[in-house]
Amino acid sequence: MATSCFSNVDEYGFERPHNFNYETYEEFMSEYLKVLAKRARKWAEIIGEGRSLERSITIKRYVRKGIPGEHRGLVWLSVSGGEELRHNFHNLYQQLLIGPHDSHVSDIIKTDLPRTFPDNIFFNNTDRHQRQLFNILLAFAHHNRQVGYCQGLNYIAGLLLLVTKSEETAFWLLKVLIERILPEYYTPTMKGLITDIDVLAELVKIKMPDVYQHVTNMGLPWAVITTKWFICLFAEVLPTETTLRIWDCLFYEGNKIVFRVALTLIKRNKENLLACQDFTELAECFKDITKDSIVLQCHDFMQSIFKLPGSLPSSTILKLRTKVEQSHKDQLNPRAGR
Amino acid sequence: MIDVTMANRGTAQRPNGTQGKICQFKLVLLGESAVGKSSLVLRFVKGQFHEYQESTIGAAFLTQTVCLDETTVKFEIWDTAGQERYHSLAPMYYRGAQAAIVVYDITNQDTFMRATTWVKELQRQASPSIVIALAGNKADLGNKRVVEFEEAQAYAEENGLLFMETSAKTAMNVNDIFLAIAKKLPKNEQAGNASTSGQGRRLVESEGQKPATGNCCK
Ligand SMILES: Nc1nc2c(ncn2[C@@H]2O[C@H](COP(=O)(O)OP(=O)(O)OP(=O)(O)O)[C@@H](O)[C@H]2O)c(=O)[nH]1
Ligand SMILES: [Mg+2]
Questions:
Q1: Does A83 share its domain with A94?
Q2: What is the pTM of this model?
Q3: What is the mean pLDDT of chain A?
Q4: Are residues A241 and A132 in the same domain?
Q5: Which ligand is nearest to the CA of B35?
Q6: Which reaction(s) are listed as its catalytic activity (chain B) (predicted)?
Q7: Are A84 and A112 within one domain?
Q8: Which atom of ligand 1 is nearest to the CA of A151?
Q9: Angstrom distance (rounded) from CA B90 to CA B119
Q10: Helix, strand, coil: what percent of chain A each, to 5?
């Protein structure tokens, strides 16, 4: 490990896991750096020439191949419609910071500040990141009172801040994610989350019936495995660069991407999952599959999410959501359906 | 991370070859955010403490084994998220649990109130034979105490709960509370196997545990 040219902290300040395989990573990076250089050139052409970042076939293809770190904030804002919002309400963020603020909400957020990425060198070494994170979460909680503050948003806002290095940009991106891209994951009832957990289970049932049956037989509820996947959008779950590559697509293509990633994770590890003999082993295996070298190789992984799970039309997801919501209603009120 | 370690806590480990029983139990931790649920688990399972412990999203799963006389008790530990809105997911975690630790922070009165509502919910909705322990955590912060020991103890007695004040920071009473639970759990043939009784539909669970399909104690 001492001989590695990579430090034990990644470029966003996250400590690498103690069992991190530097050798495999160096091999991967020697290839990936070439990809990055090429992508950087391509994006520099578009951005340097002031060409439009509006949604188009080209931009979509570029996004799927990865946005260079320094352009992420800008591109995410453009392709998601956040830029337009920011333009139309340009004073909003500053006004939200002025207040007045609900002290209960601000106390809850404060409790979570030192508990957000405590191992990240930016969050644990300077007050600045914690203060900026506080501002983003406080502003958002007062802006969207239905959501307020939901644990998990701290990780999303925190990563947005690390990437964009701008409080205000992070605020607008958070708003777009919560209000436009994702269903109701973070509201007090978490209705959208509970629905989508079951939608994913239905998709597994359709696409990998043997895995579905096995997980059911072992008695492991899907929520146990996937709540954090949905809530944190893979932050704190997958390696940082992989998460950001996923977010590239998420901002452009919408929440369908979350299902693609989840299905890919499960499908790539199908044999391992099926080999688990009991509940404990299976729960452990579901954690391991988010840490192996497959997910570290973000470029291959991102290519595979568009191939491996097969076709996934939005209409299928919408239909499944309706079906799942109906069955939740019937469960609450079993007589109504008769 | 999931760690499966044989603990040599409790009584000394039996030499190989004796025909002791192995029991597996599902245990869930409940309580307000930031009271120290994850910290208690981390102390019990790995013997560590982090000044800044990440907030738990959804739930975390760990296992730990303790030895009690003739029996090896393996805990499947479910550490849940404390924020109120994650409440709707909680039944999934306490369903089929044979034990629960309801945690509050002795320096925060609201967290004690919240603990009492968790106890009520468990008494109503969880398996009728569930063993419930109440943990008054952060006992090292005695100078900031607002929940009196006697108050919590009286409440625990009224409700038939095990009760200890704990500190994940100093390790005070952490192993002890898990051991006390292990002692109180039934270790006969009917004791549920955590994995099998943990499944099934929520709505029928209240009829009590089905006899385990596989024996937990061999
Ligand atoms: N002084 C002191 N601090 C503690 C103790 N236990 C936990 N803490 C601190 O309290 C904070 C919250 O602890 P956690 O273990 O994350 O609390 P939790 O109940 O798991 O919180 P959620 O995951 O949000 O539900 C952390 O910063 C811990 O370091 C303790 O016994 N003494
Ligand atoms: Mg926790």
A1: no
A2: 0.89
A3: 91
A4: no
A5: 1
A6: GTP + H2O = GDP + phosphate + H(+)
A7: no
A8: 24
A9: 13
A10: 70, 0, 30
